[in-house]
């Protein structure tokens, strides 16, 4: 067999480069081809395009319902934080002062050359919120007098700004959208329960809606949120086997309550500080979904969050066929819109754009719509549709009776959702190893091919003696961090630290990460 | 009759002062008593409390559905605007440069005294968006190549900042929440139709959801959005007879397309600039609802937007009654939650807080919940409820069979909605006058009592010669502006300008305003 024909047999892909060639560049190309987002003229800030923003709206709607079901309400707090507020918690300000947008003036004035320059200097500079513990804490301090005023269970959907030097769409941007829950409690136990409960909400959401399996656990001191007593997290494995921290839930102890003065008269009459928590997920989740599900043809949307579920493409070879085929397609769409999928009506697009049929079909593949229906004169004549499931290959397309399709569509979407989750679980299982020796550990995280530094082992379940020095050595040597200490760490049995051989109470999760 | 007893007979009100005593202060007290919002430690920025924020969520949901039904999609654009972008449209920058938050640095650093000061100066200062025409225009310029790329019909829900010197909760704050639609079209006609269509959406929303009647029309040149060719508006009359501009829809002509370079190849092959529009409403709508519906006992929520529809208050005089009454109340709540009111399930609260029954009842009156049910042992025994409608007086409360109440609740809510709208229409009709003479015009807008400058006539329908000088004279003399030029202006017949006697093609709407 000639080499040339072998190359020709390779399937053509919609995204160049493919994952195996250059994963980071593939990611950027998927974001672009799927029309999810793009860079803006403002350094590090992104434009979230309608297809990406609808995905975010669906994420928000799903999470919001879960927050409300667990007793939370939404509110809104100021965009700006006076510098003096940020300073109230020492670790907190250290964590955020290095990368924040600072507002120093409140108007623009023309200088002698007619150029607009800042004028009206503020007495105290304001920081655009990187997170809102301090400004919300100041408000809670006013609201809380007695134990009867607790708990406060509030969430905020907002934009925040962290002046990151190296940005990547969705994964790390200067401005991003998120939710931040901020709660205040009477007792330590109640605050801890809240911290754990919201982590569980995130895990359930990630797995059920995003079809993205996650590990849960506690961060080491080195990886904690600045000022937190404990940081819990959900961690997912991307297709390049790196970890993505997808959400965090912080137990803040009394440190922020002390910094903000959230005090209450307790049941026994004494004056006490409240116990607080905070927890958040952001538009980073979209980056996680891309790197979990997208393939060499573009985005793959999990049906539970897909902006649209079904695209219907009329295939009209002769212009005179158009009216009849359009009518048939519209009728199918109307029928499909009566189907309820997990509490909401199916979202269906009939794509009547004037363009090349192949190009049109690929545009939906790249966008990752779960199901595409192609409908030509023959399909119409036989009252059927030609079905393509985004989780299968183009070769697997099949014709089906129209009514049978409508009847089964919700079940098929659930099948797609399940297949995406199963695939992601398998990827994680295939790339998670139990490693006890330092050499093997280093080998696991060392790319075989120096041109492809992103190709390495995955998650290593290894022993650690709890010494930050060993953690640091691993990070310095391999750029590998402890992603989380599993809650059931001791179930893995005692052992010897992979670095120093010291005693370990159980394995923790090591990985390279975003 | 003794004077004292006459005073005693006056109904006690929950809000002090009452509207007739001091309207501006009454407004602030309603916002506070209803727990809608409060000032924050950040100058001019408000904290929107859960009750107020849920109201905003309901406004957003209602409008968003209307935007989507008219073919729009949501997206998200950067918070920051480089100063050079703002400068591209000369009138625009003049309008906003005087009151914008300017970001000049991207980190904080400790100075010699350990005090944090701005560091890392930006090459070009950024403005926190006061509105997004320029930054969105820059993106549209990239998206649009051909007439096939038009129209672009995008809306954004976002926070914006305008550094106002005198702020008032909801009505005028430095940071506020809003939506801003930005559309680009192939032809002038299409852009104009869009401008009119969205004004109509705002009018429908104001009247149907907010129960707030509005006048529509065009702004004079003096009152236009900076850079717009035409600004259309909805204007409502508040209870102090001042006008509130509640929403605007701008026809931007080609000026912003030229400033941003939004060009396309037209059907005949020539290169043309797009025609654009923008339109927005903000959290100011909440201020409008308060000043339209609230009374001397606090907020009155129109049912279509109310955060909750029914509060059920268990009245337990003996502790041993509690379990049975709570159970009865919970059962009523469950029954009510199965009722659909305009597409969503009724929101019902069972208020089990331990507090004085009168205080509890007043807390819901102040919050403006449409219906309160009081349920004591006798009500339970007779399978009934004691009903209070917020649009009536406390004296009008009535007992009703429980099932009959549940059966009728949606209709009663619609009655409340209708009664609020009717009351607001009547207020406007009672305080709108046709005035032809300058002296009468001045008298209409001059308070009889100098201690109560807010008490004046209302809306004057008067002739105007279209000369900005006459408009300015009225503003300078009386602080009265032309709120809008009605679309059907000529229907009112020709006449003589109320200032100069020059020819007028029809009456326009004059009023004091917020």
- Give the oligomer, counting copies of the same chain as homo and different chains as hetero: homodimer
**Residue windows where pLDDT falls under 50 for at least 5 positions of chain A:** 1-9
Kindly state the number of beta strands of chain A: 27
Instruction: Tally the helices of chain A.
Output: 15
Percentage of residues in strands of chain A: 25-35%
How far the N terminus sits from the C terminus of chain A, by CA atoms, comes to 43 Å
The pLDDT mean of chain A sits at 94
User: Mind summarizing the main beta sheet of chain A?
Assistant: 11 strands, mixed
Q: How would you classify the helix and strand content of chain A by structural class?
A: alpha+beta
Q: Give the overall silhouette of chain A.
A: globular
Order of adjacent strands in the largest pleated sheet of chain A? 3-7-8-14-11-10-9-24-27-23-22
Most extensive interface, residues per chain? A-B, 62 and 62 residues
Helix content of chain A: 25-40%
Radius of gyration of chain A: 26 Å
């Amino acid at each position: 067999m000639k080499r040339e024909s072998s190359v020709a047999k390779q399937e053509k892909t919609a995204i160049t480069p493919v994952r195996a060639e250059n994963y980071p560049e593939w990611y950027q190309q998927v974001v672009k081809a799927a029309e999810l987002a793009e860079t803006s003229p403002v350094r590090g800030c992104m434009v979230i395009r309608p297809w990406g923003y609808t995905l975010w709206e669906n994420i928000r709607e799903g999470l919001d319902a879960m927050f409300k079901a667990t007793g939370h309400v939404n509110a809104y707090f100021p965009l700006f934080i006076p510098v003096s507020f940020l300073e109230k918690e020492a670790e907190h300000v250290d964590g955020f002062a290095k990368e924040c947008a600072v507002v120093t003036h409140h108007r623009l004035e023309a200088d002698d050359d007619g150029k607009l320059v800042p004028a009206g200097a503020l007495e105290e500079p304001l920081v655009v919120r990187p997170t809102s513990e301090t400004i919300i804490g100041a408000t809670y301090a006013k609201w809380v007098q007695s134990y009867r005023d607790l708990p406060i269970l509030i969430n905020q959907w907002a934009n925040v700004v962290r002046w990151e030097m190296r940005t990547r769409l969705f994964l790390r941007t200067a401005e991003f959208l998120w939710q931040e829950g901020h709660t205040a409690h009477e007792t330590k136990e109640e605050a801890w329960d809240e911290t754990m409960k919201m982590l569980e909400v995130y895990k359930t959401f990630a797995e059920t809606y995003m079809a993205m399996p996650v590990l849960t656990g506690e961060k080491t001191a080195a990886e904690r949120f600045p000022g937190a007593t404990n940081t819990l997290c959900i961690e997912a494995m991307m297709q390049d086997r790196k970890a993505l921290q997808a959400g965090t839930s912080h137990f803040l102890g009394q440190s922020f309550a002390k910094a903000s003065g959230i005090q209450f008269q307790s049941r026994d009459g004494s004056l006490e500080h409240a116990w607080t928590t905070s927890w958040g997920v952001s538009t980073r989740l979209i980056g996680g979904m891309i790197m979990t599900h997208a393939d060499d043809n573009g985005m793959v949307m999990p049906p539970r969050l897909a902006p649209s579920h079904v695209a219907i493409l009329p295939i009209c070879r002769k212009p005179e066929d158009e009216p009849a085929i359009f009518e048939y397609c519209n009728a199918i769409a109307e029928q499909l819109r009566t189907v309820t999928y997990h509490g909401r009506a199916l979202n269906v697009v009939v794509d009547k754009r004037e363009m090349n049929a192949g190009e049109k079909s690929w545009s939906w593949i790249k966008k990752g719509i779960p199901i595409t229906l192609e409908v030509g004169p023959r399909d119409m004549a036989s009252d059927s549709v030609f079905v393509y499931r985004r989780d299968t290959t183009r070769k697997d397309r099949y014709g089906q009776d129209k009514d049978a399709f409508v009847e089964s569509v919700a079940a098929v979407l659930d099948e797609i959702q399940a297949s995406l989750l199963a695939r992601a679980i398998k990827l994680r299982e295939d790339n998670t190893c139990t490693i006890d020796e330092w050499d093997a550990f280093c080998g696991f995280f060392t790319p075989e091919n120096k041109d492809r530094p992103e190709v390495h082992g995955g998650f290593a379940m290894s022993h650690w003696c709890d010494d930050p020095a060993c953690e640091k050595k691993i990070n310095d040597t391999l750029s590998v961090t402890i992603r989380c200490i599993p809650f059931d760490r001791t179930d893995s049995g005692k052992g010897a630290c992979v670095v120093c051989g010291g005693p370990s109470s159980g394995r923790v999760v090591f990985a390279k990460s975003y």
